[in-house]
Amino acid sequence: MSDRGRMRIAMIAAEAAPYVKVGGLGDVLGALPKALERLGGAVSVIVPRYGVDPWEGAAPGRVPHLEVPFGGRVERAEITETRMRGSAVRVYAIASRKYFDREGVYNDPATGEGYPDNPERFTFFTRAAVELIRALGVPFEILHCHDAHAALLPALVDPRYGGPGAADFARSGTLLTIHNLAHQGICPPETLDHAGIAAEHFYPGSPFEYWWRLNCLKVGIELADRINTVSPTYALEIQSGAEAGCGLEGVLAGRSAALCGIVNGIDYEEWNPETDPHIAARYSVRNLAGKEACRRDLREHFRLESPPRRVPIAGIVSRLADQKGLDLVAAAAEELLALDLQLVVLGTGQRKYHDLLEALAARYPGRVGVRLAFDNALAHRIEAGCDLFLMPSRYEPCGLNQLYSLRYGTVPVVRRTGGLADTVFPWDGERGTGFLFEDYTPGALVDAVRRALAVYADPGAWRRLMVRGMRQDWSWERSARRYLDLYREIGRMAS
Ligand code: ADP
Known about the structure:
By secondary structure, the protein is α/β, with parallel strands linked by helices.
């Protein structure tokens, strides 16, 4: 497909499914570029190539390697190029033995904690991305950076700071999408100089300085032409207080006019119970019979009891991190399991949650199933086989699992925060798609689950609720149109 006449967009991010995915960021980069292409954009995606990911079909590209000046040295990076399956989206992977050839993406599997040199790794990635774009010679109209990992890029191409891209990108606009504000890439000030911007630009009150350190996400917020986050509610929450704003609430409020929220879509090619190859039986709004087979499959997999009466299965698929509200689940476990339900959890992350969940499974054999792993196929089987899906997040920029749940007729029970508040609406007997609770307390979670079970007790009402969720459209097309509008606004600013 020729790029002539199409808006050229480069996306720079730490993950892109199916090559590498740790969480929702990977899903977005796997789907948004294709949706933009269907709407007439020409998209290139630039990601690191880690030691862990499959890159079938990738080959050295037009630019097979780069010599990247970094920290007074020259680091070599190998570049491979491929096309995203079923599309013309170009994917460029930057490999570096020093920074990316490791067993984990962000975290060291041995400790479950982040690699101590993460800011340096991703600063290198951003710098290398600038070099790659220069070497490709493609006049991208938009450089779309995602999260702290790529947030330094608007500075590197800003003529005011004389960085490595200052001369070449005068006609490119920049957008920063914040998927998660908690990770900011805070590092020593020298990192700025390593990335190619002179140390003199770092001083108190400059866009680069944050409590005498460099904060990559702050830089992106200050310098990108536009900023968005992945839901309107989260865009408001992060400006309003220190907890949601993670210390950047003032900076974000200062750029309020340039900040908006766009809810993520989901990839219905990947998440569709009518075609899903991972699940025991296919089903649809018109014929829900297959869901029973999926429920049986899940019970067998987790060795749950098969009671003669209708007993709902509640599911969780999540990174096991403080953000996700697992402390609430742990604190509420006793009360939850006093109710007539079963629970399955798939997740991996912090050690303390591994221990907690293992203890729970040991305490309630036949009622609680836990798998501590990252397993995409099992995530699909859980979405299909469960009746309820729990997302008691402390905060949630957008959240994808509640959207998958809606599609799979698995009713979400969520905390009213961020993207969860924008995508799940309270069931009132006629309208709505799920159950919400406000307070971050175990009691509020249990209360929401109780409300759900009261509806579950009436099979006709439950079926109506399931079907309402399944009929909703959370496809990427709508969101991709909003991104295109943003790009056009940015383009008008740049020209
Ligand atoms: P976040 O990006 O904060 O982790 P999201 O709900 O936006 O949360 O996206 C999480 C994505 O990662 C979903 O696609 C979910 O299915 C997937 N996921 C998370 N943990 C696991 C796991 N242990 N196994 C398989 N998929 C997982």
